[in-house]
Amino acid sequence: MHLSEYSLRQLDPAYLDSLDEAALRALSVQLLDDLKEARDRLNQGPDNSSRPPSSQALWERKNGSPPESDAAVEDGGLKPASVKTALVETIPAKTTPARTSGKQPGAPGIGRTQVFQAHEVQTHYPDRCAGCGRPLESVMAVAYTGFQAVDLRWNDPGRLGLTLWVVDHRYYEAPCPCGHRTRAEAGQGKGEPLLSGIELSEWRLVGPGLAALIVALALRFRLSRARIQEFLAEWLGLKLSIGTIHQTIHEASAAVAPAEEELVQAILDSDLLYADETSWPEQGQPLWLWVFRSLTITLYYVAGRGKELVNNVLDGFAGWLMSDGWMAYRDYPRRLRCWAHLLRKARGLAQSCDREARVFGRLVLSTMEVLMGAVYAAREGPPLVDLPTHYASELAELRAACTQRQGSAHNKTHALAVEFLNDWDAIFQVLHHPQLPLTNNEAERALRHWVILRKLSLGTRTAVGSRVVALLASVIDTCRQRGHSPWRYLERVIADRRAGLPLAPLPQ
Known about the structure:
- The chain is of the alpha/beta class.
- Among the domains are: 1-35 and 114-185, no CATH class; 268-442, no CATH class.
- It has helices at residues 5-10, 13-18, 21-42, 70-76, 80-90, 208-220, 225-235, 242-256, 259-269, 307-313, 339-350, 355-380, 387-390, 392-405, 411-422, 424-427, 441-457, 463-481, 486-498, and strands at 120-124, 142-153, 163-175, 181-183, 188-189, 200-201, 272-282, 285-293, 298-303, 320-323, 335-337.
- The protein starts with a helix and ends in a 10-residue tail after the last helix.
- Residues 65-91 have low confidence and may be disordered.
């Protein structure tokens, strides 16, 4: 536990002289830890932390003008005063930036006007003296601050519906015989570097249960921040600002962020993995929402459409990968191809006005229908014959047709022929292992809900917003996939992480 600013202000030479050797050593270790952390924060910059480049001073930026050293000033014949003047003259005149969305700096704030009647009072006392480390008694403690939290109670067998529950949190300050006064403080959780600016703290108006409801309204029921505000006001009688709602959703994502490591490891340990991607705009920038889904895990990312993400996620994965024909997956050796995509394309060729396309499309359709029937029959019992050997003539005829038409003047015919030749082994791997799936429907169905959200919200506006959606979507879908309520898990996780406790494991 770090010393608070209130405790530091009480430390002086006289107080240090009053401590015995053991207490002084313990306090020195704590002060040393605080000093090292403060020094590390002081040395942080855009190159070694998540701080943006705008946090640097002008002369520290790569595209700015660094201050000249004394030697350089002397060699150039300029004195320090003239150097400062030269720097000022080279700074371009400030232009009036475009008005950003939201509350503007300097605009008058609006305080909370809704008064809550508390249902219960929770008191918080300090356990030990922050100075000497002695246990503290609550007899002489006095309250010094407090706040109200509005939480939600539901699924109560004796009470149907949703019930808002208001708690008065009161924090006390207790004196120690050593002369130091220690204050109890609200819990503070550790945030995630990639979610900069999002803090986890018990000092919140929105309790964990209510936070889980807000996440459900935003991501499961796809309501905008304004619609959530309207729902809470009209149905629950609770008035929250859009900023509070937005902060609650982001804080929930920071609470579940450590679960990503568990999800990735479960993905790597799976025997069969479905992968797919769909477009996801981020402030006009065309990105992609990726999904990796196994029997019990669903993991989402928002990133570019190149191979980098696939290589990073699948590094160490030894199972089967089911995907579509996107070339980012093509380097993976144990790959399966979705037949549904190929059948749709072949059906389109079979209905084409071009004669050559119709002939090729019908050949592809008839061959794949025969092979699908053989795969389904093999799943019913042990295969009586080796499928690749038994259907070698049909496969040879199809491959010859693809080779002949890979230079076809009909673009769709050429594209499908090349696709078959590029992914031949991945497409017909299922003939060697009939128990493996024929389609990528698992991944496509997982994306369907989020595609509707994308169409309603038009994507996200920042990289942090994209990560918030991906993290919460991963946890929500994984919990539902395992037959557990994601909202109960979110309620527990938010409460624990606000208090600084480690993340609870995902429901099994």
